[in-house]
Amino acid sequence: MSGQVETATMPNRRGSLTLTVGLVLVGLHVAVALLTLMWTPYDPTGMSGGRLEAPSLAHWAGTDRLGRDLFTQIMIGSRIALIVGFGAVAIAATIGVTLGVLSAFATRYLDDILAAAFDILIAFPTLLLAMLVVAATESASLFSATLALGIAISAIVARLTRILAKRILSMDYITAARTAGASWPSIVFRHLLPNIWPMLAVNFALQFGLAVIAEASLSYLGLGAPPPNASWGRLLQEAQGTVYTAPFGAIAPGIALVTLVIGMNLLADGLRDAGDPTRRGRQ
Amino acid sequence: MSLLDIRGLTLSTGGQTLVSDVSFSIAPGERLGLIGESGSGKSLTALATIGLLPRGFRVQGSIKLDGHEVVGASESAMIALRGATAATVFQEPLTALNPLMKVGKQVAEPVVRRHRRAGETVDRAAVAREVHSLLERVSLPDIDRIVKSYPYEISGGQRQRVAIAMALACRPKLLIADEPTTALDVTTQVEILDLLSGLVREDDMALLFISHDLPVVARVTENVVVLRRGEVIERGQVHAVFDEPKHEYTRSLVDAATAFDKALGPAR
Ligand SMILES: Nc1ncnc2c1ncn2[C@@H]1O[C@H](COP(=O)(O)OP(=O)(O)OP(=O)(O)O)[C@@H](O)[C@H]1O
Ligand SMILES: [Mg+2]
């Protein structure tokens, strides 16, 4: 854990700046994603210009090799990325935190079994695991890709939760509370989760980014969201062949991906600082 | 009948026996010191008493807390027993409080729990008043500020007072204090010790006081049990043991403590 007290005002200002930038970046993507439900500049599936046009006022990000507007596809990609990212992290958090806390509370025997299971699952590449899950479902869809990534990531969350929880559970205030007759739900919800939450949140942001990237890979393999739900990963893959003649086809979705992933990480950092009284500024 | 009755307690883990055949008892209102060098098994014995040993320990013998057998008891039985019977104060003021919860809220928790158990309705103003009076009892200054503070915003000694207030909030029959002053400077140590022994007397609580310092133990308890490598090697009235240690090991503890004792001043 980091230092207990930060007296300088700098970190606080930095903290709120982090939060603001994170909020703006993620908020922008959320706003765009919501907008695409009602309106897009062009029809994402129809030709709206020449092939592989460079960015212009009419086509902010140029067009792809079928003459479709790239900016429109990137906007829709925001929606896909947010659904996959939030969905996968929500699934991973639910499964992972539950199993991790359970493991930390369990008898040594059960704990050993769970810990070994987490390690084995983590040893599988996330993508491979996700492919297996998708293969086990009926057909590839946005839902199956999200579920697959959520399950694959849950082992990572579970292992982290277990380690963090064990450290907190060995603290004197937990023992004191237990001596005083606190029940385990009260320990978990009042003491344990609030104290491991900051570390988990930062990890969730990281996993969010990895999920978005992994979904792109799944899409490439035909296991992600099927067209016309263009994910950034598919745009990147399509642009691969023409990266020398029309580099913007790869750069634009790349920028979108990077801003969302960075924004989410900044947001998590900012939220963690805001939730930690030792980091938060006093009036 | 004893409040706490430990018979032939043996604790082992991974083929190692860390506490062997320890027996002692504490009557209601009695103050007992458990003394011994670092690693002699004092904390393990205390944790066993309340059924909170780390996982993987084998417990043999019998521990009767307020007439209930602790060894082999279910967790739900222990939750009910612990709350009504025992409370603990630990050595390290830094980890004694939840760092993310304001002091007032933290002290309120055992207060609310006690009222709920008794089947009483809990009203917030009454809880706040009780929290305030508990913090007054542990002689904290500036209580209105402290209830709104986070643990990192108050001093180590103040944190330890808060921890004691939380233990008092349970109205336990037995207070277990595991080296509650070791991490504090000498003056603060004396203040906390005197506070603790005063409170224990006022509330007629029994006290299991753990320390490696004989003078510290002498200040708050009348009887003492000396542990060494997990075995009881000497026991009796604290001043008798202090003045005429029978065992070589106890004598070395006394010698080591004599210089320190001067700094502490006369016992109350
Ligand atoms: N979870 C554990 N697993 C294995 N051994 C342990 C565990 N906890 C404590 N021990 C060992 O048990 C012995 C007694 O430990 P204990 O904590 O009771 O000592 P202590 O008398 O309280 O010492 P101190 O004065 O340093 O607090 C030590 O040798 C310690 O290494
Ligand atoms: Mg100890």
Automatic annotation (TrEMBL), chain A:
<feature type="transmembrane region" description="Helical">
    <location>
        <begin position="243"/>
        <end position="267"/>
    </location>
</feature>
<dbReference type="InterPro" id="IPR035906">
    <property type="entry name" value="MetI-like_sf"/>
</dbReference>
<feature type="transmembrane region" description="Helical">
    <location>
        <begin position="200"/>
        <end position="223"/>
    </location>
</feature>
<dbReference type="GO" id="GO:0005886">
    <property type="term" value="C:plasma membrane"/>
</dbReference>
<keyword id="KW-0812">Transmembrane</keyword>
<keyword id="KW-1003">Cell membrane</keyword>
<dbReference type="InterPro" id="IPR000515">
    <property type="entry name" value="MetI-like"/>
</dbReference>
<comment type="similarity">
    <text>Belongs to the binding-protein-dependent transport system permease family.</text>
</comment>
<dbReference type="GO" id="GO:0055085">
    <property type="term" value="P:transmembrane transport"/>
</dbReference>
<feature type="domain" description="ABC transmembrane type-1">
    <location>
        <begin position="78"/>
        <end position="268"/>
    </location>
</feature>
<dbReference type="InterPro" id="IPR050366">
    <property type="entry name" value="BP-dependent_transpt_permease"/>
</dbReference>
<protein>
    <submittedName>
        <fullName>Peptide/nickel transport system permease protein</fullName>
    </submittedName>
</protein>
<feature type="transmembrane region" description="Helical">
    <location>
        <begin position="80"/>
        <end position="106"/>
    </location>
</feature>
<feature type="transmembrane region" description="Helical">
    <location>
        <begin position="113"/>
        <end position="136"/>
    </location>
</feature>
<dbReference type="Pfam" id="PF00528">
    <property type="entry name" value="BPD_transp_1"/>
</dbReference>
<feature type="transmembrane region" description="Helical">
    <location>
        <begin position="21"/>
        <end position="42"/>
    </location>
</feature>
<keyword id="KW-0472">Membrane</keyword>
<keyword id="KW-0813">Transport</keyword>
<keyword id="KW-1133">Transmembrane helix</keyword>
<feature type="transmembrane region" description="Helical">
    <location>
        <begin position="142"/>
        <end position="161"/>
    </location>
</feature>
TrEMBL record, chain B:
<dbReference type="GO" id="GO:0005886">
    <property type="term" value="C:plasma membrane"/>
</dbReference>
<keyword id="KW-0813">Transport</keyword>
<dbReference type="InterPro" id="IPR027417">
    <property type="entry name" value="P-loop_NTPase"/>
</dbReference>
<dbReference type="GO" id="GO:0016887">
    <property type="term" value="F:ATP hydrolysis activity"/>
</dbReference>
<dbReference type="InterPro" id="IPR003439">
    <property type="entry name" value="ABC_transporter-like_ATP-bd"/>
</dbReference>
<dbReference type="Pfam" id="PF00005">
    <property type="entry name" value="ABC_tran"/>
</dbReference>
<comment type="similarity">
    <text>Belongs to the ABC transporter superfamily.</text>
</comment>
<keyword id="KW-1003">Cell membrane</keyword>
<dbReference type="InterPro" id="IPR050388">
    <property type="entry name" value="ABC_Ni/Peptide_Import"/>
</dbReference>
<dbReference type="GO" id="GO:0005524">
    <property type="term" value="F:ATP binding"/>
</dbReference>
<keyword id="KW-0067">ATP-binding</keyword>
<dbReference type="InterPro" id="IPR003593">
    <property type="entry name" value="AAA+_ATPase"/>
</dbReference>
<protein>
    <submittedName>
        <fullName>Peptide/nickel transport system ATP-binding protein</fullName>
    </submittedName>
</protein>
<feature type="domain" description="ABC transporter">
    <location>
        <begin position="4"/>
        <end position="254"/>
    </location>
</feature>
<dbReference type="InterPro" id="IPR017871">
    <property type="entry name" value="ABC_transporter-like_CS"/>
</dbReference>
<keyword id="KW-0472">Membrane</keyword>
<keyword id="KW-0547">Nucleotide-binding</keyword>
